[in-house]
Write a structure and sequence with these properties.
Blueprint (H helix, E strand, L loop, with lengths): L15 H30 L63 E7 L2 E2 L19 E9 L3 E6 L10 E3 L3 E6 L6 E10 L2 E11 L5
Parallel strand pairs: 2-8
Antiparallel strand pairs: 1-3, 3-6, 4-5, 4-7, 7-8
Keywords: Membrane, Transmembrane, Transmembrane helix
Length: 212
């Protein structure tokens, strides 16, 4: 050992500053914990105010009003209309007010009747040479249908084929006849006869050709 080293203090360990900072931290933490404990105790010792209770007010129930009965109106009788008696029946008879009854057997009905509308009669110049025959007249074709009849008649040049029949035909039938040239027109009639009477219908066929 040298003379200069006699009496000098021993060197401090290097960990001393670290230990000192740790101690300071522990002391600060203890101080904070102490302050927090004091605050908690003061807060817990203060009594909480009890909530005020408002007394409920009980309303006194009054008497329930009773319903007043209503008077039931008396129905007014409805006057009955009186039908005046028909003066023609002698006061209350039933003969004058009834509708007429339909006949037991209605007349026949012609539902359709028609056919040829017009013909063309030939001129004399169109006739063949003597001895070679003659010109055929135009043909009239007609047909008809009907109901409610049990017989029928066809007539030419009359409006009542039953009174002046050309031929007896069927209720639903047809016919073909020669036109009477050189007439300007001709009428053809169908008449149906049944239990309810007779019904006639007429058509007129015109000649658009030679009329003489």
């Amino acid at each position: 050992m040298t003379a200069g080293q006699v009496g000098s203090p021993p060197p401090r360990p290097r960990a001393w500053p670290v230990i000192r900072w740790i101690l300071r931290g522990l002391l600060a933490a203890a101080l904070v914990a102490l302050v927090a404990l004091i605050v908690v105790r003061q807060t817990g010792s203060t009594p909480l105010a009890a909530p005020e209770t408002t007394p409920a007010t009980t309303a006194a129930a009054g008497p329930t009003p009773s319903a007043t009965p209503k008077a039931t109106p008396t129905p007014t009788p409805t006057p009955t209309a009186t039908t005046p008696a028909d003066p023609g029946t002698g006061g209350g008879g039933t003969g004058g007010g009834e509708a007429p009854q339909p006949p037991a057997n209605p007349a026949p009905v012609i539902t359709s009747f028609g056919g040829t509308n017009a013909v063309i009669c030939p001129t004399p110049s169109e006739a063949p040479a003597p001895g070679a025959g003659q010109v055929e007249p135009p043909t009239v074709s007609l047909s008809w249908t009907g109901t409610g009849a049990d017989s029928a008649f066809f007539g030419i040049g009359t409006k009542d084929a039953q009174a002046e029949p050309f031929s007896s035909v069927g209720v639903n039938d047809s016919i073909a006849v020669d036109f009477q040239c050189p007439q300007a027109s001709q009428i053809y009639t169908i008449t149906l006869v049944g239990p309810g009477g007779a019904t006639s219908r007429t058509v007129t066929i015109s000649n658009d050709g030679y009329k003489g």
